[in-house]
Inverse folding.
């Protein structure tokens, strides 16, 4: 019975602590879903050599960086990661206009690497902040 109360308490507290960021998390989730969709479409466009659609999907990806909710962490390192993503998208657009498939492919790889590095950084920051921001909700009650 004691464990049930712990889980109920944990669930309640989790809802209370998560509520203020829920709207932000929803915006970010939508952005990341769109980023994945446009990135996958871009890869498909590269595979079939469709430069118009490469350009279009890269423009969509670039536009995501202007949406509210894109800037998850306000740090210089996050800004560097975000700028690398933008530069890669801009490079894809330029290379697609020039019908340079090798250039588009390289820029796509750079864009993908910027995503991986940024997601690693965001996880590191969130993991480092987690213990200080939230109490140990699973500790035995006294």
């Amino acid at each position: 019975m004691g464990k049930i109360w712990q889980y109920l308490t944990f669930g309640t507290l989790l809802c209370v602590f998560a509520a203020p960021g829920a709207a932000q998390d929803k915006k970010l989730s939508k952005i990341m879903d769109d980023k994945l969709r446009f990135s996958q479409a871009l890869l498909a466009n590269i595979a079939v050599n469709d430069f118009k659609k490469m350009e279009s999907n890269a423009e969509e990806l670039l536009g995501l960086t202007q949406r509210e909710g894109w800037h998850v962490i306000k740090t210089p390192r996050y800004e560097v990661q975000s700028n690398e993503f933008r530069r890669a998208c801009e490079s894809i657009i330029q290379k697609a206009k020039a019908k340079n498939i090798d250039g588009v492919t390289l820029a796509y790889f750079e864009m993908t690497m910027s995503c991986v590095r940024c997601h690693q950084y965001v996880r590191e920051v969130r993991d480092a902040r987690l213990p200080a921001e939230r109490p140990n909700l699973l500790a035995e009650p006294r």
Q: What stands out?
A: Helices lie at 2-48, 51-64, 76-97, 101-133. The chain is about 80% helix and 0% strand. The longest helix spans residues 2-48.
